[in-house]
Give the backbone structure.
Amino acid sequence: MTEITPQPGPRLRVLILGGTSGIAEATARLYAAEGADILLVGRDRTKLDTIAADLGVRGAGRAEVAISDLAAPADAAAELSGFAATLGGVDHILVAYGILGDQAEAARDAAAAERIMTVNFNSAAAWCLAAANLLESQGRGSLVVLGSVAGDRGRRQNFVYGAAKAGLAALVEGIAHRFAATGPRAVLVKPGPTITAMTAGMTRKGLLWAKPEAVAAVVRRAADKGGPVVYAPWFWRFIMLIIRFLPASIFNRLDI
Amino acid sequence: MVFAPTSEWTSWGRVNRAPHHVARPTWRQDIPAVVAEGRQRFPSLLPVGLRRSYGDSVLNPAGAVIDMTGVDRMIAFDPATGVLRADAGLSFDALLRALVPRGFFLPVTPGTRFVTLGGAVANDVHGKNHHGAGTIGCWVRRLGLLRSDGREHDLGPDDETGLFAATIGGLGLTGIITWVELSLMPITSTMMDVETIAFDDLDGFFALAEASEQAFDYTVAWVDCLAGGARTGRGLFTRGRHAAAGPLEAGKAGGPTIPMDFPGFALNGLSIRAFNALYAWNGRRTAGNSIQHYQPFFYPLDAIGQWNRMYGQRGMFQYQSVVPPDAARDATAAMLRAIASAGEGSFLAVLKTFGDRPSPGMLSFPSPGTTLALDFPNRGDGTLALLARLDAIVREAGGKLYPAKDGRIPRDMFRAGYPGWERFASHVDPLMSSMFWNRVGP
């Protein structure tokens, strides 16, 4: 057994957009155990405060909250620098909010479809672009964004959500490309189905459902190393490889 | 749709399986709404945690269950006093991970760290330090209890209504424990000074227990329940205490998980005999003094995830009794003889003496005397017949069985063992019930 070594140097400063998401909370617990300073952003102060108190007991150096409607940023760049200032600078930025929406409703109701696209793509893109500029200006840091395996191929079940996540994937890959020769990094994590509040209404049985802790471990690692696209858990990389290369003549006959 | 139907729902022993309706709230403030919906849709509800209970006290197929494991946040911790307040669904595992590095340990812990705070209180769990520390209920400063009428009570040992006493060890039947405030114990090292001594018979066990309990915080013995004749009651006695100096490092996550049920033939007389021999040999090999991390000392079985699957599809019974001091020696010997002659065998037989520190709990299991815990693979009628013989010995000795381990205790034996049950019943929430309570309650 080795002795616990205190974090060398200054504590990691972590900004989490969408602090009440199940994957975000599980990831924040990993950061807390490392003694990081954490700022949680979201709309629900009660829930954010509840999580922040827990992170404090779990070992976070600081755990604070900021209230913002992330889906409708007025000026993402300005707000983001405000968050960074609260933390005294930022090392890791996690973009974790999103909504699954209802595909059937989105097919009927243009407003519902727009809501899914606005939350999961338009607003997320604004935050990512602002984060990219912030990280580039400081020459270091990580941007980790939650995508979805649903973005890899449109399926009748959830293609509006999938399309928004696919757009976000292209955006984050582009940021990673832009960062390639410089200091910061950008990573898109694509979780498969995860047992969180987002999927509460679904039948969550079977081997492919992951616990948020398992996905969080991938998210945390992605901030430090790995390619611009990371699947969580890892086996989705291979499943989606097959799904993406299925010819439409076969794919369209499958009920998946 | 807060309550979802699930086909596979079982307790740790896996003997009883039934489809259940399950709600899994994630926020403490959502629980009242869950109860309100449950009240509309089901005749009864039952809060459950990580379901390490072996029998039917965590099952409620006639109604619905509220899985509290998603409500698992710490609310406040004061390092000056060691007092932690946390959601009821927080696991001991998460608690230790957060607070061991800061020099705090559970005042009382059972043999698994995969229990929730609420579940630990609802079963008034005990550990290897019962002779000094009593049960977990002795360390609860306050708790939140949500009754099905929508009222949340803030209860402590000063409660005069009896609701606090009924809730400690109350098996989730008095309402939903929403949060718990617990006094933790300061430690200066995560290592344990441990001594293991072989004994040849039950007299050897009692002598060691008597000699050890003053100087050692933790004592427990393993008994080879296949040894008969003059060797009846032979085993290994382990005593330990927290080391005074050393690192403060929380244990690692679990090890491998048993991926599927073992086939029925994997557990037979021969394999149990081999396991017992191996365990005894290993114990003798390591007998003497050692220094080890708290994790293998307290939680040896947690190293193998889902070890209950070793017992196959039909599951297992655990049988844990306590008998008063005067009858302890004879009753324990009689139980071991009954097991040896039945040839049923138990993988692990754990023997320990309880101290006389009273629990605040009305339905608390530990009481002064000797406790014996046994695992039996479920082989149907033969196993049940042996358990009935053990029942007779325990009753004759004036003892009782542990509801957390039980799935079959006869109603009259439960009532004889827990004379406070009627007083307890008056505190049971009108909406709460379980398979266990349907069996033994009014």
Remarks:
- Strands of chain A lie at 13-17, 37-42, 62-67, 92-95, 142-146, 185-191, 229-232.
- Residues 13-249 of chain A form a domain with the Rossmann fold fold (CATH 3.40.50.720).
- Residues 1-7 of chain A have pLDDT under 50 and may be disordered.
- The first helix of chain A runs from residue 22 to 33.
